[in-house]
């Protein structure tokens, strides 16, 4: 029987990063993955493939709608080769997961393929696809088994017409009408992919706005922009029934007045969130407790009810974000090494990779009002930037919320071109507890999109943005 200092169950961003950091710190490490490729949901059927399709569809939209404005003419027009687009997406996935394989070898981490199941708190059975079982011993274990798409009780996912994000990443045709249940990040990103490729897209959302976890101003702006792009939104609609035929899907929902509304399409993407995945883990055999939401219970050190077992990522409380899982993986590895790591969950940014991109960190206006914190707000539109006009990316704004008394930045919310990258400046500033004035006094290169952050900081400091 092989013995390890640490065994990691799950090879997503949290799991493989935890394994690498443990190995760097001198621990003999094993990682267990049920699938034949490493990388988990994010690399295989989540973050990476969806961004590949978003990028490809963005190129297509530019070629068909915007190239002419730049003086670029394509004789004969532009055609979609969906099969090739999906193949490119898969190539990106293969390259990325192959990179994780390389990192495991480089760091001398043993990889076990199969379902990891606790025999007891220090022994893990690994059941392979052929039914054979290996057992390893681990002084410490990190649970990083991630999450799976959720559904509604009355919806059966046939994975043909009624699909999850996994199937949406490998369709063999562009839908005529895709009805999306759920106006969150995943539904909006994939909805935009297929809208660009020519599908009619309808988003049915239970809440009164899309991306409900983000600042309300971002929700309003993104819905306004995506409406211009042709996406139809039905907020405050409660889905009550779904029926399928060989080629159609019919969704029934009650609007905010309780009146039934019917949506007919050829595909329905169910995007109502994700659930923690602990199937087959046999957590109780190790003394690991789950809460009533199916999450692994952990303390402030990410330690479970079994002292030598930790859990990270989507399988525990908090936002389901790859970079949150990575931070937690490093946190646990360094804790096991006797260090004193720290995570500030308030400073983990959230991003929606639509175009325009949406990004935020810190507190929303709604949260500050609820907490009774007095704040000031500064906002600057991208359309006032020379760089935005040069690239014709005029939609969106940057909003900075700062403490009314101390001027410390409490939240930054942005929607516009490259916001997924721009938000890192805000995270850095807030990590060092910068004031809005601090940001406003930093030189930002011209012409760039980052100037919007400086201008928003000026607006928050003394209401003196320079270019509006």
TrEMBL record:
This is Dihydrolipoyl dehydrogenase. The active site is a redox-active disulfide bond. FAD binds at residues 51, 116, 145-147, 314, 320-323. GO terms for biological process: 2-oxoglutarate metabolic process. Binds 1 FAD per subunit. One of its GO terms (cellular component) is cytoplasm. Keywords: Disulfide bond, FAD, Flavoprotein, NAD, Nucleotide-binding, Oxidoreductase, Redox-active center. The gene is lpdA. It catalyses: N(6)-[(R)-dihydrolipoyl]-L-lysyl-[protein] + NAD(+) = N(6)-[(R)-lipoyl]-L-lysyl-[protein] + NADH + H(+). Coiled coil: none annotated. Belongs to the class-I pyridine nucleotide-disulfide oxidoreductase family. Its cofactor is FAD.
């Amino acid at each position: 029987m092989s013995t390890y200092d640490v065994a990691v169950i799950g090879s997503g961003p949290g799991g493989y990063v935890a394994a690498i950091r443990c190995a760097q710190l001198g621990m003999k490490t094993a990682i267990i993955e049920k699938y034949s490729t490493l990388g988990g949901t994010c690399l295989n059927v989540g973050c990476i493939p969806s961004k590949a399709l978003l990028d490809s569809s963005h190129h297509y939209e530019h070629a068909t709608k915007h190239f002419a404005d730049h003086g670029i003419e394509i004789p004969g027009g532009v055609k979609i080769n969906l099969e090739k687009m999906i193949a490119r997406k898969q190539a990106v996935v293969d390259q990325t997961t192959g990179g994780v394989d390389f990192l495991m070898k480089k760091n001398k981490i043993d990889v076990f393929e199969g379902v990891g199941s606790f025999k007891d708190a220090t022994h893990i059975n690994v059941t392979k696809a052929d039914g054979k079982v290996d057992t390893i011993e681990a002084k410490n274990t990190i649970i990083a088994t991630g999450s799976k798409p959720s559904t509604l009780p009355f919806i059966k996912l046939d994975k043909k017409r009624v699909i999850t994000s996994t199937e949406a990443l490998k369709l063999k045709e562009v839908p005529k009408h895709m009805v999306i249940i759920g106006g969150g990040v995943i539904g909006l990103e994939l909805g935009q992919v297929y809208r660009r490729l020519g599908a009619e897209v309808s988003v049915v959302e239970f809440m009164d706005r899309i991306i409900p976890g983000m600042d309300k101003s971002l929700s309003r702006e993104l819905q306004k922009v995506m409406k211009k792009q042709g996406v139809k939104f039905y907020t405050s609609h409660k889905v009550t029934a779904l029926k399928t035929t060989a080629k159609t899907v019919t969704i029934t929902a009650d609007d905010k007045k309780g009146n039934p509304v019917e949506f007919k399409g050829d595909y329905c993407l169910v995007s109502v969130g994700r659930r923690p995945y602990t199937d087959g883990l046999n957590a109780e055999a190790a003394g690991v407790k789950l809460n009533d939401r199916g999450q692994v219970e952990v303390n402030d050190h990410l330690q479970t009810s079994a002292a030598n077992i930790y859990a990270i990522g989507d399988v525990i409380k908090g936002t389901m974000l790859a970079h949150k899982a990575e931070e937690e993986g490093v946190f646990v590895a360094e804790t096991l090494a006797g260090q004193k790591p720290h995570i500030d969950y308030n400073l983990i940014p959230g991003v929606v990779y639509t175009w325009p991109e949406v990004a935020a960190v810190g507190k929303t206006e709604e949260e500050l009002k609820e907490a009774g914190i007095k704040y000031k707000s500064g906002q600057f539109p991208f359309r006032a930037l020379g760089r935005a006009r040069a690239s014709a990316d005029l939609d969106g704004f940057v909003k900075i919320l700062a403490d009314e008394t101390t001027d410390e930045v409490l939240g930054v919310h942005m929607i516009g071109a490259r916001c997924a990258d721009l938000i890192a400046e805000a995270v850095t500033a807030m990590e060092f507890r910068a004031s809005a004035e601090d940001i406003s006094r930093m030189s930002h290169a011209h012409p760039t999109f980052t100037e919007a952050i400086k201008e928003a900081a000026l607006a928050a400091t003394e209401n003196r943005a320079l270019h509006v």
